[in-house]
Amino acid sequence: MTSYIGTATSRIDGRDKVTGTARYAAEFGAPDLAYASLVTSPIARGRLKRLDVTAALKVQGVITVLSHQNRPSMADNDKAYKDQVAPRNGSPFRPLYDDGIKFSGQPVAVVLAEDLETASYAASLVHVAYDEEPHVTDITRQRYNGMALKAPAKPRGDATKAFSESDARHEADYFVPIEHHNPMELYASTAIWNDGRITVYDKTQGVQNVHGYLCGVFECDPGDIRVMSPYVGGAFGSGLRPPFQVALAVLAARAISRSVRLVLTRQQMYAIGYRPAMIQRIQLGAKADGSLNAISHDAVTSTSEYEDFHRNETTWSSLLYRSETAKYDHKLVRLDLPTGCDMRAPSAATGVYALEAAMDELAEALKMDPIELRLKCYSDRDQSNGLPFSSKNLRECYRQGAETFGWSRRNPAPRSMREGHEFIGWGMATGVWEALQMPIAVRIALTSNGHAEVSCATADIGTGTYTIMAQVAADMLGLPLEAISIKLGDSTLPQAPVEGGSWMAASVSNGIVTTSQAIRDDLLKLAQRLPGSPLKGRSGDEVVLANGAIALKTDGRDATAIADVMRSAGIDRIEREERTTFAKDDAHAHNTHSAIFAEVRVDEDIGVIRVTRVVSAVAAGRILNLKTARSQIMGGVVWGMGMALHEETLIDHRFGRMMNANIAEYHVPVNADVHDVDVIFVDEQDEFVNPMGIKGLGEIGIVGVPAAIANAVYHATGVRVRDLPITLDKLTRTS
Ligand code: MOS
Known about the structure:
The protein is built from 18 helices and 29 strands. By secondary structure, it is α+β, with helices and mostly antiparallel strands. The mean pLDDT is about 95. Dioxothiomolybdenum(VI) ion binds next to loops.
């Protein structure tokens, strides 16, 4: 039954990707293609006063310049602009809608020309005058001016009193700066005009979300727009909401009745979502034996002036550890910036960073081993609601991770381990994420030549969705992997949610199981009509599709070839589309967990930090593909290194403008920064989370990594830097 599920299967789209056959949004074209280039606002808040396009229009090859003054019509109500993942409160940004300026980098005009160079040159000739208004972009100045949000969990007991009575206490602020996704593929949309109908090739995590948005914004029929996204060159959350370039590409195509391509520059991409900056205050109080008696987690996060985007950083403190008392507080600060958005493990990458760095500091105060402290507070129930976990093998993550890493050889004293001119530091942390699934529809067409086409409007954002879909379908239909073809990334395919939240592997795999079972039942009915069929009187549950045949589960010898079943019925194709919803399991909490161990080496004179080893032990239910799963976790670990040591979007608050909007000055880890990364998947069977026991892997890989590295840096140097990223100037300044 499981020849492919669980194996290390190479990506079925790998060859197309490395040979350049796989086409991305900006690589589609049309004979009449026009090129768009943006004019963007240098001010952070105010109004556009005057727009002079005379010089731009004089350039040969320029078709037109669009602005709010001459654009085609767009919907005039907020609802039309609310995509599936838009924040509930607020008014989504409407590109080129009116003269209002809400953030630096906002598009104010689109130049259309016969080629890209002409469009970019003409854009530089558009003169814009603004009425500037005062802006605020610094979260640290607004820390006490936030609006209170409803805490995700109820407080327990009197945490203030318990904290004051604790044997050991730790209290500190942890800062996370704005971080940008910086996917390799630029945000791009190619709108192919076809007699009033438009096919948009877009870089997105959800074609149907973009489709619904565009139909709303341009008030057109669903059949007038089709959104395609066969391949995505990284998105990490930045492709969950439709970015402004997709609306502008379609707007432009409608304006000139031609096909239009709009690719943002790396700099322009910084005006679309990012991980919001935040200040978190953590208080932990414990008894002398290490049992927690008080947790308090206050988060101040930022959003734009026009939408209330936030996730719940404090959720993770409220569920993870046993504590007698607890309280949570979250305030949201408005800044004159574009609205932030989800970025890999939104709220957990940040919230767990603060919690797990604080736990390390508490362990130090208690003179306790960091793992021992976590085991002392280990909980088999979600502390926020008392529900047992559907499965939680975090204990085994600690054990296997520690053993592989060699944790028992750690000398607990800071600055005690060294080699040559480098201090060596070993740190660890816990990771946690949710295990979710969403309603989804899957169509399967099985043909008598032994081929199956599986289609669903999901995305493959680089995570390996094409491959796991083929693996699950091959096993469920009893066919070789090569006999399965996958269609996704097309808004006309069966319904799928956006690919995010680590829910797609569980959603689409269980969806394939449901539809495969419908196909199996159809085949069973046909097979039962054959004279002398051994399957007579049997139900679907008793039979299996394997090796191109339908057979009794208990006795493979009575197998009848699927091709024979279909031939005798006189059909050469069975097609089914089924929708899968998931029974609500209110009796359990559903989470993935991990234990991260990191080794850093820090130059004792100049503070240069190298992350030389990371072991990540993950408990995430059933692993569908060991190879792509390992890659997901490795990617998360590398990003966690970036979060700990490199990544930071810097704003010049005088202008409200992002200063390092390029990948030369926005630092991310490169190959030379990444050494040994060891991924362990701890066995975890889960019979409650969903029928396949899949929990998802996209996000858990990053969670805990920044804290493990920060804790290792402290252990190496004796210097605790709580403001990310831990750059060498902070290390040497405070030491
Ligand atoms: Mo993920 S941040 O939901 O793409």
